[in-house]
Write a structure and sequence with these properties.
The protein has 202 residues and is mostly beta strands. It contains two helices and ten strands; from the N terminus they run αβββββαβββββ. A hairpin with a 2-residue loop joins β6 (113-125) and β7 (128-137). It comes from Acetobacter farinalis.
């Protein structure tokens, strides 16, 4: 029986390890401090809630704008302000998407924007933080805490802008914001998942 050589496998493993290291996100502490603006085309706000007890149904908001003041050396001093045009809501059902614009749901004619303005940032680990702020939806403002995780930073190869990205999650009760249609058949608890991209301004 011929002996097997593990050299090719080890070489391949080494190559994969090198590629993974090259693609790994930089440490949060190395991110450039400064003022950033929301990179609208690559920022998404997804929401999901229980639909008649059968499925977790999701929708999407786009078109977010806003600013981020960031200093990785002092993350607790960070400031975030975001505005989301509610009329941008999309679902897989054109009929439902149209209904969500109406007075029984988001009533976009009277409340065109949802906003989040941070009031406190508490670091929770390397590149993670609990960000609390005032969230306004449907004309109602209440505190909301987002669990935020740093994803990566670097120069965007398309527009050459220095960009930083985060993923955030949070939950809210839609009835507390006056959006009560079909509660409890359609869930009251809404889970938010936010992919946020920010381009450095100075």
């Amino acid at each position: 029986m011929k002996s097997m050589s593990f050299a090719p496998a080890l070489a391949a493993f080494g190559l994969l390890a090198s590629l993974s290291a090259a693609q790994a996100a930089p440490a949060f502490q190395t991110v450039q401090a400064g003022t950033y603006q929301v990179e609208t085309s690559h920022t998404q706000v997804t929401f999901s809630l229980l639909h008649f007890g059968f499925t977790e149904y999701s929708g999407l908001f786009s078109g977010a704008t806003g600013s981020l003041t960031l200093d990785p050396a002092h993350p607790a001093a960070s400031k975030l302000t975001v505005s989301i045009p509610v009329e941008s809501v999309q679902t897989t059902s054109p009929k439902l998407t149209d209904e969500l614009h109406g007075a029984d749901w988001f009533d976009v004619a009277h409340y065109p924007n949802a906003t989040f303005v941070s009031t406190k940032v508490v670091p929770t680990g390397a590149g993670t933080a609990a960000v609390t702020g005032n969230f306004t939806l449907h004309g109602v403002t209440k505190p909301l805490t987002l669990q935020v995780r740093f994803i990566g930073a670097g120069t965007n190869p398309l527009d050459k802008a220095y960009t930083v990205g985060f993923q955030a999650t949070g939950t809210l009760k839609r009835s507390e914001f006056g959006v009560k249609t079909y509660v409890p058949m359609v869930g009251d608890t809404v889970t938010l998942s936010i992919a946020g991209a920010f381009e450095k301004q100075n």
